[in-house]
Amino acid sequence: GAVVSQHPSWVICKSGTSVKIECRSLDFQATTMFWYRQFPKQSLMLMATSNEGSKATYEQGVEKDKFLINHASLTLSTLTVTSAHPEDSSFYICSASFGGPNTGELFFGEGSRLTVL
Amino acid sequence: LAKTTQPISMDSYEGQEVNITCSHNNIATNDYITWYQQFPSQGPRFIIQGYKTKVTNEVASLFIPADRKSSTLSLPRVSLSDTAVYYCLVGKGNLIFGKGTKLSVKP
Hints:
By secondary structure, chain A is mainly beta. Chain A contains no helices and eleven strands.
């Protein structure tokens, strides 16, 4: 299947700093990628849809100025958590869709665990 | 988007067949049903997708009755490594995950 890779897989930062997470589609072009966050023992929560060459679409309640998304190429989307605080500590997962128009199958990255001290 | 309902958790033993059912009463005509598996600290992994009747791959089978208001993921002869959370998603490109079913396989 299609491969989506994230980097870094884990990061620890101090409160107030910014952290960038990269999401790459390795063997296909992804015009659209999706960012999720997942707290312990909870399900995935969709944060935003990243569109190549245009602004991201954020889900209700997600601060766009806090979570900056850039999708500059067909294989790379980045999520920057700005001025991170301990409550931003979470597991961040990206995904991309590959396949025919009726499948909607999602391929996920390995996830990036952010710990804010 | 069709809302899905799954059991919160299930227990099984190695070698048994496990069936996880997902209810999706308001599924739309064009909606597909997709199942994902997630291990701790990993991104979800696609398992199987179907529209109607039965779909089988090397990992699982998916049974969908004629009214399509539910679906059943069948895992044959589970092993300890099948312990994971299983999510059912309904809809073309549906991005919203429900709470999933936590499957625990015991020796």
